[in-house]
Every structure is written in structure tokens, then in C-alpha cells.
Design brief:
This is Cytochrome P450. Belongs to the cytochrome P450 family. InterPro entries: Cyt_P450 (IPR001128), Cyt_P450_B (IPR002397), Cyt_P450_CS (IPR017972), Cyt_P450_sf (IPR036396). Keywords: Heme, Iron, Metal-binding, Monooxygenase, Oxidoreductase. It comes from Microbispora hainanensis. This protein is α+β, with helices and mostly antiparallel strands. It contains 14 helices and 14 strands. The strands form five sheets. Strands 3-4-10-7-5 form a five-stranded mixed β-sheet, covered by helices on one side. The chain has a three-stranded antiparallel β-sheet with strand order 6-14-11. The protein has a two-stranded antiparallel ribbon with strand order 1-2. A hairpin with a 5-residue loop joins strand 3 and strand 4. The longest helix is centred in the middle third of the chain and has 31 residues. It starts with a strand and ends with a strand.
Length: 400
């Protein structure tokens, strides 16, 4: 490309807005890793992208040089206020992470496994009865919303409301509809406030309930969390808790549909499913828009990033970096170690990693147990830049 950005005479190295197929981005990222591992694009106001594993890890870990407090996603999403913990750098961010980590640790969320599996069976039933459908739209999205509702202990009507507004919010971002983003965000804030008020009136175990844990932290005499930040944290969790599993599950199901041998192996030995989930997370990390802003001029991957410029961390590319992963494009159930970056790295590593793994394991386990074969049944339609995964994934399901 020959266009320049920001008046700097800097040519764009790639176009992140180009239409994608299920496989095309991996070819693009492989080419960038070889010839231009930290490319510049003038899309979305201009930003750098880290495509190699070592550069992504460096950006994620060095909060002093690469801040999350200014612009933490590409494109820069309008917001009415900062939403913890994503919009805060350490050490301030730790005030919000502590009550989240307490209720999202593996020993706490594993109690949800039976409910997640039941939700998966119920949502999968109509697709099995019809012999297939759009797995992304008809299963992955409502399942992610249902699991999030189970985690927060919400009633069914609230689940449906969150699902509707969450879909509107994510699609508005994908279409760069600022008015739509702001309107949906305000609706989500209203829901978050109502949830917080419900917990204030009817508190639950703060070692198991996220909102009660945040409210307990708001009363900490040494480092209290302001009430509006409790609401903002719940608001932030609503979006992340639905969007990422939706995208990752769609990708995982498409991959399985294209690999009958893998399906048969996992059906014969369900004990291999956790290893498969780790590889699917590596191959199809659902986010590539998380960004940091340089606090000073810094060299990254042979390029000079100026203070105030944004750097997106391309997790799907880093997870296929040939310098770190042998046969990086192949799903290897025996891959050890598997230090993938699907959940990020450093202070802002995803607090919901354990819950996401449980969601995926339950969903894919039910899909394999309920079928003798899963096959592609039409063209996969990808989300655009915002999320990495299928917006539509038609699959044929052969019931067992």
C-alpha cells in the first residue's frame, strides 16, 4: 500500500479491514511475521500491530512503557468513563482484579460445570433435531450468554436482555457506528446498575459471587472501590464474558467440522478434550484488538513507536509464531508445553480463563457426544476486525 498516515509520511504496511475468510488471516499474519513483524496501518486512526510472540509478550508485560489507560483497543471505542480493570494500569488496576480473581479462580468456577453442560445440551437439542444450523448464531452466542448469566446468578429475562443489547453493542462496534455503540453501552450500564443494586439489597457469598465480592471491596477502609467503578466493572465483564466465548466456540466448531479424524479421536477418548481445547484456543484466540499506548518513544521489532501511538497485540498471529510453536498451524494434542496467549499475558491476563475453559470443554463435549459427525454446511462468515471468529458458521450435525 502507498497511503500515508498522520502527516508522518509513513506508508501503511497492511490493511486490517480487508475481507477475510476462515483461513485467510493466518496467511496474512504469517507473511507479516516474515517481512514486517510490527506493521503500521492508517486504518482506525492509525496504529501499530505486534504479530510475533516475543513482541506481544513484551507489550503485554511492560505496563510502564505500554499503557492500557489511554487507548486499550483498536479502534478507540468512545466511552463515558473508564471501566476497570481493563482501563487501568498497575498498581491501581490490582484493586479491581483482586475481587474478580477471588471468584473466578478454578476452584470456585468448577462448581458451574454441570450447569454449563446442561445449558449446552438444551441449546444443542434444536440443532440436532433439525440436523444442523448456524452454530455461531444459534448456539455459541446464546450459550455464552447463558453461561455468563449462570455465573452471575441472573434470571432468564435478564439473560435475554443482556443477550439482545450485547449483540447490538458488538455489531455496532464492528460497523464503527459510534451512536449505536454509545446507546448500547448506556443500556448495558443501566443493567449493570440494576444488578449491583440487586446485590446490595440481597448480598451473596462474596467468595463466590462477583458483584458481592466487588461490593465488599467497595467497603475496604484502606482502598475502597467507588460505587460507580463497581458498576463499571460489572459493565465491562458483561461484554467480555459473552463476546470471547462466542467467537472462540464458533472457530472451534468449524475446525472440528473440517477434521473428522480429530472428532473420532475425541469421541473415542474424551480425556483428550482439555488438550484439544488448549490447541483450539491457541489456533483461534478470539481477540486481536486489545492495544496499549506507548508512553515514550520505543523500539519494537525494528520499528520506532512514538509516544502516544497505539500498538495492537495480534494474539492469533503470536499463537502461530513458528519461532515458538513447532508446526504452528497444526492442532497437536501432545503439544507440550503450550504457552499460548489466548488469554493474554502480564497484569491484564484474562481473569476469566478458567471459566472460559470450562465453557468450551462443556460445549464441545456435548457437541461430540450428541453427534456421530459434524460437517461444514455452507460458507463461514467472519466477524470483521473487532473479533476473531465466525459471525455465521453453518454446520451439518448427524445425531448419534
Amino acid at each position: 500500500m502507498t497511503t500515508t498516515a498522520g502527516g508522518l509520511g509513513r506508508a501503511s504496511d497492511w490493511d486490517p479491514t480487508a475481507p477475510e475468510t476462515f483461513d485467510s488471516s493466518h496467511e496474512v499474519y504469517a507473511g507479516l511475521r516474515r517481512r514486517c513483524p510490527v506493521p503500521w496501518s492508517d486504518a482506525f486512526g492509525g496504529f501499530w500491530a505486534a504479530t510475533r510472540y516475543e513482541d506481544v509478550v513484551r507489550v503485554a508485560r511492560d505496563s510502564e512503557t505500554f499503557s492500557t489507560a489511554v487507548q486499550n483497543v483498536v479502534p478507540h471505542v468512545p466511552r463515558t468513563q473508564r471501566r476497570p480493570p481493563l482501563h487501568f494500569d498497575p498498581p491501581e488496576h490490582g484493586i479491581y482484579r483482586a475481587p474478580m480473581d477471588r471468584v473466578l479462580r478454578r476452584s470456585v468456577v468448577r462448581r458451574l460445570e454441570p450447569a454449563f453442560a446442561e445449558a449446552a445440551r438444551e441449546l444443542l437439542g434444536p440443532l440436532l433435531a433439525r440436523g444442523g444450523g448456524d452454530y455461531s448464531r444459534e448456539f455459541a452466542l446464546p450459550y455464552a450468554a447463558q453461561c455468563f448469566a449462570i455465573f452471575l446468578g441472573l434470571p432468564v429475562e435478564r439473560v435475554l436482555e443482556i443477550r439482545r443489547i450485547g449483540v447490538a453493542y458488538s455489531f455496532a462496534i464492528q460497523e464503527m457506528d459510534r451512536a449505536g455503540v454509545m446507546a448500547a453501552s448506556e443500556e448495558l450500564y443501566a443493567i449493570a446498575r440494576a444488578i449491583v443494586e440487586d446485590r446490595r439489597a440481597d448480598p451473596r457469598d462474596p467468595d463466590e459471587d462477583l458483584v458481592s465480592s466487588l461490593l465488599r471491596a467497595s467497603a475496604d477502609p484502606e482502598r475502597p472501590i467507588p460505587y460507580d467503578m463497581v458498576v463499571a466493572t460489572v459493565r465491562q465483564t458483561i461484554v467480555a464474558g459473552i463476546g470471547a466465548p462466542h467467537a472462540a466456540l464458533g472457530s472451534a466448531a468449524v475446525h472440528l467440522s473440517r477434521d473428522p479424524g480429530l472428532q473420532d479421536r475425541l469421541r473415542a477418548d474424551p480425556g483428550l478434550l482439555p488438550a484439544a481445547v488448549e490447541e483450539l484456543l491457541r489456533l483461534y484466540a478470539p481477540y486481536r484488538v486489545f492495544a496499549r499506548t506507548a508512553t515514550r518513544d520505543v523500539e519494537l521489532g525494528g520499528r520506532t513507536v512514538r509516544a502516544g501511538e497505539a500498538i495492537a497485540m495480534i494474539f492469533p498471529s503470536a499463537n502461530r509464531d513458528e519461532a515458538v510453536f513447532d508446526e504452528a498451524d497444526r492442532l497437536d494434542l501432545e503439544r507440550r508445553p503450550n504457552r499460548h496467549l489466548a488469554f493474554g499475558r502480564g497484569a491484564h491476563r484474562c481473569p476469566g480463563a478458567a471459566m472460559a475453559r470450562l465453557e468450551m470443554t462443556a460445549a464441545l463435549g456435548e457437541l461430540l457426544a450428541g453427534t456421530s459427525r459434524v460437517e461444514p454446511d455452507g460458507e463461514v462468515e467472519m466477524f470483521n476486525w473487532l473479533e476473531f471468529g465466525p459471525r455465521s458458521a453453518p454446520l451439518r450435525l448427524v445425531p448419534r
